[in-house]
Amino acid sequence: MSSAATPAAALPDCLYCRKDERLHALMIEVATLQVSTLYLFKEQTYHGRCVVAYKDHVNELFELSDAELALFMQDVARAARAMKAAFNPAKINYGAYSDKLPHLHVHLVPKYVDGPAWGTTFTMMPEPKKLLADADYAALCDRIRRALTETK
Ligand SMILES: [Zn+2]
Fold first, then answer.
1. For residue 149, what are the contacts with CB-CB under 8 A and spacing of at least 6?
2. What is the 71 CA–ligand 1 centroid distance (Å)?
3. Residues of the chain with pLDDT > 70: what percent?
4. Fewest CB atoms within 10 Å of the CB: 59, 116, 131, 145?
C-alpha cells in the first residue's frame, strides 16, 4: 500500500512516512519521482546535497521486488543527473545507512575538488552547519526541478 493512501495515524512513527516537522527540520521536498521523493538537505556544506527517500517503510534494498528496485535506482540516478546538471560537482557520493531510521533513503552528496571531504567519506551532519535563507533554498530547489525537466 502506498503511504499516500494510509491514514497518518496508521503510519509508522517515521519522519519519512509522516512527513512531519522532524522531516521539515532536515529537508525540503523538491519533487516526487517514480517510487520516491527527492528532498534538498538543509545542511548545505556540500553544495546541492539531496536525499531520495523510497515511498514505503522498508529498510533494505533486498526487500524490494526487482521491478521496484529498478524504479528506485532509476530515481536515484535521475536525481543525481539533475544535481550534476544543476551544480556541476566533480562527483556525487551515495550514502544509504539507516541504522537508526529504518526507512530506505539515499543521501546524494555532491563533492567538489578541494571542497569539504573531497577524496574521503562525507560527514553526515557537519558542524558548524551551513544553513541558508529560505530564498536561497527555494533557488536551489528551482534549479534542481529545472534540471529534472531538462535532463529527463
Ligand atoms: Zn517510514
1. none
2. 18
3. 93
4. 131
